[in-house]
Design brief:
This protein is α/β, with parallel strands linked by helices and 482 residues long. It is built from 20 helices and 16 strands. The chain folds into 4 domains: 151 residues, Rossmann fold; 165 residues, 3-Layer(aba) Sandwich (Rossmann fold), CATH 3.40.50; 72 residues, Orthogonal Bundle (Helicase, Ruva Protein, domain 3), CATH 1.10.8.60; 63 residues, Orthogonal Bundle (Arc Repressor Mutant, subunit A). The protein is 48% helix and 13% strand. The chain starts with a helix and ends in an 8-residue tail after the last helix.
Length: 482
């Protein structure tokens, strides 16, 4: 790993180097770590006394803490426990001997980011530090993005920075300025009502009423009365006259959710209201003029329903003036980290829970999950984990079974290394596989941002075009495939 590569992952601004604290009772280990890491641009401090090292660590002035497991007076696991209990932001990497690898694994379950085994080579140490720094930088980037997205106004809690969501935000802003009828489609749980509220909030009608009606919860008779109103005595139980939602929403916005469930008879009356902007109560002889902005929503294919004769074609075209399609969460997985962190922060503000975030491993599994319940399911699961998790960060073991199914299977007994050299080779293979996965995703993201333009993609990520092309060839990628 070159010096330039290491400096590129330093989390501080400008030329200020990242700070690393080494706590190990062996002087030779402290000196080796300082020599290796100082040589690639890190600012390194060392302590052979575990108590003094802990005191220094708790100042929260370090980015990474290298911590020996076996030390006199205060062992590494106890130091790790106190560091994690303090809530400082530094990542902890455990230093283990041959006989303490199992303890290192236990330390990772308690919040350590990684471990390095003695004796280690300079490349092994630099690689572990690089991986931890990159992962930490990714988490900070997600947190910063979440904060930025939370500061958006007018979207009624809609969150996302993926390209599909950016297009939706742009479309909402454009359509909101008009009175055009909007049809929001998408699977259950994608946030169709949020999109409708965002349109209303950004429109000139924002200071008037936003009235929502779920058309799937009422019988045809009750729905007709709910939408259009009725006069006293018009049907059994009509003991008094009642305004319909069209009248209540006058000057504002009426949102009809799950309108695919409306009967053919009511579809005809709804079409007449949209064409004439006049509504007649059930049992009334007169029509009342209404001024509303209509937004419809459904999780069904209205075009197919029209072809099947289950939905009026003329009403479909009247509703589908400006279509807004909300993609399922599995089609915008890049939004999962920021959504999860946002939901966690919202829950933490209202409830006294210990959890502060997610481990990268847990987030990886969450991104790999297909989320059939979409954003609603993600929010519910985040709140459940926040309640049940006993540590500061949600780990793979805290995830529901359906998400943990994406976790790699345990290594078969026959493949467990029998020697130190075999173990190091296995670690190298695992790391190479992980790097290749990230490398491929890195290329795809760069190509996506440049709309498949290889020259622009390589320039934006700071690579030579030939080097970028070579990596694309390695994974069989073409610019036009993106």
């Amino acid at each position: 790993m070159s010096e330039t590569t290491t400096k590129n992952i330093l989390p501080n601004d400008g030329d200020v180097p990242a700070r690393i604290l080494v706590i190990d009772d062996e002087a030779v280990v402290c000196l080796s770590c300082k020599r290796i890491l100082s040589g690639v641009g890190f600012a390194v401090e060392t302590h052979q006394d575990s108590r003094k090292g802990l005191s220094d660590a708790l100042t929260d002035q370090f980015d990474v803490i290298l911590l020996d497991i076996v030390m006199p007076d205060l062992d590494g696991l106890e130091v790790l426990k106190q560091i994690k209990a303090s809530g400082i932001s530094a990542e902890v990497v455990m230093i283990s001997g041959y006989s303490t690898v199992e303890s290192a694994v236990q330390a990772m379950k308690r919040g350590a980011a990684d471990y390095v085994s003695k004796p280690f080579t300079p490349d092994e140490l630099r690689l572990v530090i690089q991986k931890v720094m990159e992962r930490s930088a990714l988490i900070r980037e997600n947190l910063a993005l979440r904060k930025q997205l939370e500061e958006r106004t007018g979207f009624e809690g809609m969150i996302g920075d993926s390209r599909p969501m950016e297009r939706i935000f742009s479309l909402i802003q454009r359509v909101a300025r008009t009175d055009g009828t909007v049809l929001v489609t998408g699977e259950s749980g994608t946030g169709k009502e949020m999109a409708a509220r965002a349109v209303h909030q950004l429109s000139p009608r924002k200071n008037e009423a936003f009235i929502a009606c779920d058309c799937s919860t009422l019988t045809p008779t009750l729905l007709e009365s709910e939408l259009f109103g009725h006069v006293k005595g018009s049907f059994s139980g009509a003991v008094a006259s009642k305004k319909g939602l069209f009248e209540v929403a006058h000057k504002g916005t009426l949102f009809l959710d799950e309108l695919a469930n409306i009967s053919m008879e009511i579809q005809g009356k709804l079409l007449r209201v949209l064409e004439t902007r006049r509504v007649k109560k059930v049992g009334d002889a007169y029509e009342t003029e209404v001024d509303i902005r209509l937004i419809g929503a459904t999780n069904r294919d209205l075009q197919q329903m029209t072809a099947d004769g289950e939905f009026r074609e003329d009403l479909y075209y009247r509703l589908n003036v400006v279509p807004i399609y909300l993609p399922p969460l599995r089609e915008r997985k890049g939004d999962i980290p920021v959504l999860a962190m946002t939901f966690l922060e919202q829950f933490r503000r209202k409830n006294p829970v210990k959890v502060m975030g997610f481990t990268p491993e847990a987030m990886y599994l969450m991104e790999a999950y297909h989320w059939p319940g979409n954003v609603r399911e993600l929010k519910n699961i985040v709140e459940r984990m926040a309640i049940l998790c006993d540590s500061e960060r949600i780990q793979p073991g805290d995830l529901p079974n359906e998400i943990r199914q994406n976790e790699p299977l345990p290594l078969p007994q026959s493949l467990i290394p029998r020697s130190w050299e075999q173990f190091k080779e296995y670690k190298r293979q695992v790391r190479d596989a992980a790097v290749q996965d990230v490398e491929r995703r890195f290329l795809l993201e760069a190509l996506e941002q440049s709309h498949g333009n290889v020259s622009r993609a390589s320039e934006e990520v700071g690579m030579q075009r030939t080097q970028f092309h070579a990596l694309m060839a390695k994974y069989g990628l073409q610019g036009e495939d993106v």
